[in-house]
Amino acid sequence: xxxxxLIGIVGGTGYTGLELLRLLLLHPQVKIHTIASRSQAGQPxxxxxxxxxxxxxxxxxxxxxxxxxxxxxxxxxxxxxxxGQAGELVKAGVKVVDLSADFRLKNTTVFEHxxxxxxxxxxxxxxxxxxxxxxxxxxxxxxxxxNPGCYPTSIQLPxxxxxxxxxxxxxxxxxxxxxGVSGAGKSLSVGxxxxxxxxxxxxxxxxxxxxxxxxxQELSHFADEAIQVTFVPHLLPMTRGIESTIYCQLKEGxxxxxxxxxxxxxxxxxxxxxxxxxxxxxxxxxxxxxxCAFSAVIPQQRNTLVISSVIDNxxxxxxxxxxxNMNIMLGxxxxxxLGQIPLLA
Length: 345
Ligand SMILES: NC(=O)c1ccc[n+]([C@@H]2O[C@H](COP(=O)([O-])OP(=O)(O)OC[C@H]3O[C@@H](n4cnc5c(N)ncnc54)[C@H](OP(=O)(O)O)[C@@H]3O)[C@@H](O)[C@H]2O)c1
Description:
- With 345 residues, this protein is α/β, with parallel strands linked by helices.
- It has 2 domains: 5-126, 3-Layer(aba) Sandwich (Rossmann fold), CATH 3.40.50; 151-314, Dihydrodipicolinate Reductase, domain 2.
- It is 32% helix and 20% strand.
- The chain contains 12 helices and 14 strands.
- It has helices at residues 15-24, 45-48, 64-68, 82-91, 108-114, 121-126, 132-140, 150-164, 194-197, 211-223, 256-267, 315-329, and strands at 5-10, 30-36, 59-60, 72-75, 95-98, 128-129, 144-146, 173-179, 202-203, 229-235, 242-249, 273-275, 292-297, 304-311.
- The strands form 2 sheets. The protein has a 7-stranded parallel beta sheet, sandwiched between helices.
- Helix 7 packs parallel to helix 12 and helix 8 packs parallel to helix 10.
- The two termini are 33 Å apart.
- 45% of the residues are buried.
- The model has no long low-confidence stretch (mean pLDDT 97).
- The structure holds NADP nicotinamide-adenine-dinucleotide phosphate.
- NADP nicotinamide-adenine-dinucleotide phosphate (NAP) is lined by residues 10-17, 37-40, 62, 76-79, 81, 99-100, 149-150, 182-183, 185-187, 313-314, 317-318.
């Protein structure tokens, strides 16, 4: 099969950039045209990732002219990078998938509160939120995708259909999420050190995490009213994986079978959703895959529904979902290049 589409990656040395490489190097329909890193420009990728010795690619400085020759460009960069460059690419007809938060929040005042002033508010309004299973039709014709955050992906996939169908109360939703350390990216910080995380477990961002406005924006859309949730992330002493435990109140008369029925109706045909009926899923069940697995329990048959949802933050939570969106945008089979079996041990 010929590799028809030229792809650019900006931020090729980071964790999500590396994960894009892992997926795209074996993708049957795309070819990496340019992979950018400012710090490693001129170096072969195998100098940074020796395990990729069989792939003769070199990092280059960010070069908008070269990126313009691509069919699609991924931004695997910190916020503020894509918002300054995506406009030019989109104008040139290049499709863009941004893994950062630059195009996720539609309200610029909210964006400014959590991040910084937005430099391209016009383009922001044209961006399509890329939670694939919930927004597929809009993704098909999008020029620019705001790829969702990792925590929001693990939370919205189980919750959105329940809010849409009115099975749970819109108030009193508590979300307790835990992530592996790769979720914080590769840049150096004391909090990311092995010694700080090994044999350790802690909550962070309790007073307010940047994914909170994204979760609330999107859930409000499905509930058709403003939703506020309590969201508490935690750091786990492992490299990759997210588990979100979500507590919500059932509407009167709703049974567990109703919950599973709604999930089945929404997701039965989905390749990357696993609905678990018995035990809550573990992060290893989805490690290295583009899958989100979730289950529900009503403890002691009281009124609280407890959902357990797992993803690999670097795959369904970032680069895998980005590739899934790329496939749709390029008119390819959505699952191409995403057939990984989980790293079970
Ligand atoms: N890690 C996750 O699980 C995860 C999940 C979902 C979304 N995300 C989002 O995805 C983005 C990338 O995350 P990551 O974890 O891969 O970060 P990372 O490991 O820190 O990597 C960041 C990359 O961006 C490049 N970069 C930094 N500043 C740049 C600039 N001004 N211009 C061009 N390139 C620049 C860096 O390389 P050079 O400095 O060499 O250029 C590096 O390759 C972030 O916005 C993050 O919030 C991450």
